Amino acid sequence: MSEKCVRDRLIAIADDMEMIAKELLEIVLTPKPLRANPTLDSNQLADLLVAKDKELKAELLMAKEQEVVHKNMCELRDEVDKHDTQIRQLQKNLKEAEHILSTAIYQAKHKLQIISKATTHAIPSEELIRYAHKISAAHSVSAPYNWEIGDQR
Question: Cα–Cα distance between 30 and 42 in angstroms, integer?
Fold first, then answer.
């Protein structure tokens, strides 16, 4: 009986109660000499109807318990979905952070290479001063005094 779902058991019990009630009414409404099945007693049918009523009440209690369990499951499912959304957002943020950090590490390594190259290939300060003098003598740092827009000098 536990293999059937509660709904099916409730329907079966209701059908049984309907059949028992019909039989009971038939016995009560039909005179004794005209009854087709004199072996069934109205007291037995009433007892059977009461037993089915108790069975129905037990199944209804089980249905209420299952309803509570189902409600709890739905609430937990909603909570899991909410946490899944938060986890996905956190995962997205971590991916962005990973990308930013990997870019920063790449740039830092590149700068460290440049720094190490600069320290190994040191240029004397006198040579830098001569180069700066050469640039300033050619007016490459600033425009000549009478320069205007479009002047190709």
Answer: 12
Question: CB neighbours of 10 closer than 8 A, spacing ≥ 6?
Answer: 56, 59, 60, 63
In a domain, 23, yes or no: yes
Total domains in the chain come to 1
Q: How many residues are listed for the chain in this entry?
A: 153
The first and second tokens of residue 50, run together, are: 């009461």
| Residue 117 domain-assigned (yes or no) | yes
Name the average pLDDT for the chain.
Answer: 85
DSSP label at residue 150: T
Per-residue pLDDT band at 1 (split at 50, 70, 90): very low
Its domain, for residue 56, covers: 6-138
CB within 8 Å of 16: residues ≥ 6 apart: 52
Tell me the per-residue pLDDT of 50-59, one tens digit each, with 9 for 90 and over: 999 999 999 9
